[in-house]
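Project standup — Tuesday

K.O.: blocked on the structure for the chain from last sprint. Re-posting the sequence here as requested.
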Amino acid sequence: MLRRRARRVQEEDDPLDAAQERRVRAVLALGGVPQADLPDGVQQVRLRLLERAAKGFEAPRDVSAWAAVVASNLAMDWHRAKKRQERLGERLASLRQHEHPSGEDTSVLSLAVAQGLDELPDQQRQVLVLRFFADLPVRSIAQELGVPEGTVKSRLHTAVRAMRARLHEDEVV
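H.V.: unblocked you, prediction finished:
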């Protein structure tokens, strides 16, 4: 009974709901964080949200968008610290487990997308993941990153063009 009560209190005090946690996990995974490190990444996002509240800052207007941006920043930090080849294998394994059924076409596409993401500059990768994988609108991305909407649109345009060229080059699409 004590465990059930402690779990209920923990759930009530959790700054992230289940949907927000799934989004954070997806952003971290797509940003290159291995499956084994995803729980730590989610905890880091929770910790930053709690630290923000402890410092007396106002809660973010859109906690989900804020959490996705923090997760994206964490993924970028991790991405910079690891070698590209090590990340690639871990990311593909993580994506196949959660998102895609097995199959040769899906594997080829996953590999091409992962390699394309690796080749993008950090800022372009970040807005691409936030826009298309975390499904955030351009306005939210701009607000959370502290850049003009035009900058986000420009980075998205360049990133999409580069990804499209990469997928055509590899004859995936």
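K.O.: great, moving the ticket to review. The longest helix spans residues 149-169. The chain is about 75% helix and 0% strand.
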